Amino acid sequence: MKTIKLKKDSLKLIDDVTNDLKASPDLGIYKCVQCGMCTSICPGASQTDYDPRDMVRRVLEDDVTVIDDDSIWNCFSCYTCNSVCPSGNNASEINQILRQMSIEKGEGMLKIESFAAYGDSFMELGVGSIPSKFFDVMVKDVGPDYMTLKLEIEDIRSELGLGSYILPEKDIDEVEAILDNSGFKKRLERIKGCKK
Ligand code: SF4
Ligand code: SF4
After folding, report:
1. What is the pLDDT of residue 2?
2. Residue 107: predicted pLDDT
3. Is 98 a pocket residue for ligand 2 (Cβ < 6 Å)?
4. Which one of 45, 67, 155, 175 has the minimum C-beta count within 10 Å?
């Protein structure tokens, strides 16, 4: 096993990762022993060339090229790596921070552009929901019952004694105001415009 020697004068990437708003205070990146447990259990690693152990190594070695590495987009955010890590490290969290850095740089925008419809749907309904453009895919994956469920969901909820899942207009307006003031709306427009 290779020992990682941290560079004394260049820990910018680790600093940026550990100081990121998303980083947990107890993120154990410095305690990573490069055991590879995360990679051995990672579904992304089993199907693609993504390697969480190697991603952590590159961050520790201040290798900023990891931000532009396509493989980091093959993480499913399942957090299995975190549950098995003997050092309490969280490769999933590190991955999300690196992706965010890629989005800030611009390259990552194209990776998430196809999901922008989720943002639109959130703005429109005030709750997270599968956008209509993905219904065909859902029918393909889940079967025709998916559309039946979509069309009859209000009746099913009513039979179960549950209220409507459709928010009142005033609540949707409130959510939209929050998304607007927090910068979500502006960011969504930037993502949608990245292909133009
Ligand atoms: S399981 Fe934890 S300690 Fe082992 S390589 Fe992965 S992040 Fe490092
Ligand atoms: S969260 Fe990502 S890195 Fe961790 S096990 Fe799941 S797919 Fe792999």
Report:
1. 62
2. 87
3. no
4. 155
- DSSP letter string over 131-157? -GGGHHHHHHHH-THHHHHHHHHHHHH
- Residue 116 · residue 108 · CB < 8 Å: no
Domain boundaries, the chain: 12-105, 111-195
Is residue 34 lining ligand 1, measured as CB closer than 6 Å? yes
Architecture of the structural domain at 12-105: Orthogonal Bundle (1.10)
43 C-beta closer than 6 A to ligand 2: yes
Ligand in closest contact with the CA of 80 = 2
Q: Low-confidence residues of the chain, pLDDT below 70?
A: 1-10, 195-196
Cα–Cα dist 151/156, whole Å = 10
Region of residue 27 (phi > 0: left; psi between -120 and 50: alpha; otherwise: beta): beta
Minimum CA distance residue for ligand 2 atom 2: 75
Nearest to 24 by CA among 85, 90, 75: 90
Residue 101 to residue 107: CA distance in whole angstroms: 9
Q: What is the pTM of this model?
A: 0.81
